[in-house]
Amino acid sequence: MTRKRKGNYKKRFIFLLLVGALVIIGLYSTKNLYQKTIVDIPKITKIQQLISPIPTQTNSFQLFSTSLFVPYWTLKNTEFNSPISLQDGGFKSQINTLIYFGITPTETEINKNEPGFYNLSTFSISKNSYRALLTIRMSNEDVTSTILENETSQKTIIQETLEIASQYDFDGIVLDLEHSVLPTSDIIQQITDFVETFSLQTKQQELTFGMTIYGDTYYRQRPYDLKALDQYVDQFYIMAYDFHKSYGEPGPNFPLKGKEIYGYDMEIMIRQLISDIDAQKLTILFGLFGYDWSVDDQNRPLKPAQSLTLRQIKNRFLESCPFTPCSIQRDNLSAETSIQYADETGQKHVVWFEDETSVGEKVTFLNSNSISNIGYWAWGYY
User: Fold this and answer.
1) Which of 151, 208, 244, 297 is least enclosed, having the fewest CB within 10 Å?
2) How many CB atoms lie within 10 A of CB 382?
3) 0.85 cut: is pTM over it?
């Protein structure tokens, strides 16, 4: 063997040693990186595995005002003496307005013999420094029809409402006129006239005037002329919940998307609303509750659904579902969650509900349409 050939073998041997060393170092680094990645992944519970959350944009939220409805039946040793917030779904929602729900009229005056009136003092003592609005509940069809046809009754009801607002130091009025009747021109005009009168007298007292509106007003042709009402209403509170009724087919509380499946969705609702009303005058309300339907094999309801607060749903299903089978799945279109389970008797159930994560998805969409006022139904439900 010549000296030249020996030199070549020596060079090759050194080269192979260097390559081997680099491979070993690379494998060791990859192993450490892999181990570090595994350590950084949090443990996933069984329930979390069943729910597939939708990613949220954590830095895109701009909330100018967040309201919370406080139903009279939830006031039990309550004191709002610390900041109220809901945090999940990628954002923190800080409450700054409490809306007491509320007082209600008879056909001629404010009813002073019902729990909503009795609890006024409790709410007034509890609200502390929060901005507070007073709701007048008008959901009885017969009573509302009589009031709309009687200007004397309207005058008395408006006057007494404003006196109560002054006595208990409210900052404004919210008219909750839920009238599920045929949208005849006469009814629509009666509502507009009543709102005009109520609004003008409220503003004379230097109070704000708001009004709740069904989220499905356009879809189900409710008897409200929103363009006309816009002249008199400072803030519209859009009830973006209860789209699927307790007495109807199972479905989301109010789907973000999915009009092809559900017939309507929030994206269409917002486009319609902002074509008639300035976006800054819209407060979108989310219902922190759901419905539990008993259904047949085709998911058709067998009877009216049971309403469940978000808190009840979390306790009954999400912490540890006691039923078998029990399938929990977030719907990517509506952003809401459905649960399918069989109870102790073998009866099949379907549950749909809104939660903080679905609200976060919807708030992202609202922000993209310059809507930054939201609210929740209701205190005690989450």
Assistant:
1) 297
2) 18
3) no
Where exactly are the structural domains of the chain? 55-288+355-377
* Residue 224 structure tokens: 């409200």
Nearest to 327, CA basis, from 338, 319, 311, 343: 338
Answer whether 236's CB lies under 8 Å from 281's CB. yes
Contacts of 294 (CB under 8 A, 6+ apart): 301, 302, 303, 305, 347, 348, 349
- Please report which confidence band the pLDDT of residue 94 belongs to, taking 50, 70 and 90 as the band edges: confident
Q: How many residues does the chain have?
A: 382
As a whole number of angstroms, the distance between CA 111 and CA 160 comes to 10
Separation CA 216–CA 214 (nearest Å):
5
- Mean predicted lDDT score pLDDT of the chain: 86
Structure tokens at 272: 């319609």
Distances in whole angstroms, Cα of residue 110 to Cα of each of 116, 120, 122, 143, 150: 11, 13, 18, 12, 14
User: Residue 68: is its pLDDT beyond 70?
Assistant: yes
Q: How many helices (H) and strands (E) does the chain have?
A: 12, 15
Say if CB 33 and CB 25 are below 8 A apart: no
How far apart CA 91 and CA 108 sit, in angstroms, is: 45
